Amino acid sequence: MQACFNDVAIHYEIEGPEGAPFVTFSHSLASSLELWDLQVPALLDKFRVLRFDTRGHGSSSAPPGPYSIEVLTGDLIRLLDHLEIERTHFAGISMGGMIGQVFACRHADRLDRLVLSNTTCRVDPEAAPLWEERIRAAETKGMEALAPDILKRWLSDHFRRNQPELTRRIHDMIAATPVSGYVGCSKAIGVFDISQELHKACAPTLIIAGRLDESTPVSAATAIQERISGSELAVMPGALHLSNVEASELFNQALVGFLEG
């Protein structure tokens, strides 16, 4: 299904029993709503699940930039308004976790419980050359060329060897990402910093980290936990950046337990 606004069309899917509490999922850079395929079945008995493709990703449109995390959060709010969803639980991974933090700080009246996975509250300005390099590579070589290195950051060698079909699906999500969407969202991520505002987040919060994640390490999760009063931290052993995929069983246990309160 599509929700069309003035500047963007957002693709979304809704599953689960009508009248149940909503859980909204937001995916990472260079993926799509399919990134949450392993979580949805664990929730459908008790929750109504909303997944959407961030602008520039999946089946959503990829308008010209500039993008910002605030713009991406605005898309979320417009989607919730369009669907007449007054309140929702929210789970975001990586870039989706950045959207979740802005959502929690600036739209607290719309949020019930918050799950932030493999994300950070601040991207170090010293990482700017790295993001510029990735953007240049996408613009000159295309997303297919970036996929192997992204997969190495996202999933362990062991997982990629033993789960070739799932690894291929994630590879295909990366490769299918429009270059304009990857570039626009990469620029938004590269300047993201909500660290001084994060104390405003008041929803019950679960933070999830991958023990082996070098992109958003456990220290980044701890920094978020220190800023959100009463938040909980769960570390997924053996997982890199996509802990919801690599440690899906433990991830789902933590997710469902937290959302059920």
Question: How does this structure look, described?
Answer:
43% of the residues lie in helices and 17% in strands. The chain has a single domain, classed as Rossmann fold. The protein is built from eleven helices and eight strands. The longest helix is centred in the N-terminal third of the chain and has 14 residues. Helix 2 packs across helix 3, helix 4 packs antiparallel against helix 8 and helix 5 packs across helix 7. Helix 1 links the parallel strand 3 and strand 4. The two termini are 31 Å apart. It has an eight-stranded mixed sheet with strand order 1-2-4-3-5-6-7-8, with helices on both faces. With 261 residues, the chain is an alpha/beta fold.
CATH fold-level topology: Rossmann fold
Main CATH class? Alpha Beta
Series of H and E elements = EEEHEHEHEHHHHHEHEHH
Count of helical segments?
11
Keywords:
8 strands; Rossmann fold; eight-stranded mixed β-sheet; 11 helices; 261 residues; alpha/beta
Set down the secondary structure blueprint.
Blueprint: E1 2-4, E2 9-15, E3 22-26, H1 40-43, E4 48-52, H2 69-82, E5 88-93, H3 95-106, E6 111-117, H4 128-141, H5 143-154, H6 157-162, H7 164-176, H8 179-190, E7 205-210, H9 218-227, E8 232-236, H10 243-246, H11 248-259
Parallel strand pairs: 3-4, 3-5, 5-6, 6-7, 7-8
Antiparallel strand pairs: 1-2, 2-4
Brief overview, please?
This protein has 261 residues and is an alpha/beta fold. It has helices spanning 40-43, 69-82, 95-106, 128-141, 143-154, 157-162, 164-176, 179-190, 218-227, 243-246, 248-259, and strands at residues 2-4, 9-15, 22-26, 48-52, 88-93, 111-117, 205-210, 232-236.
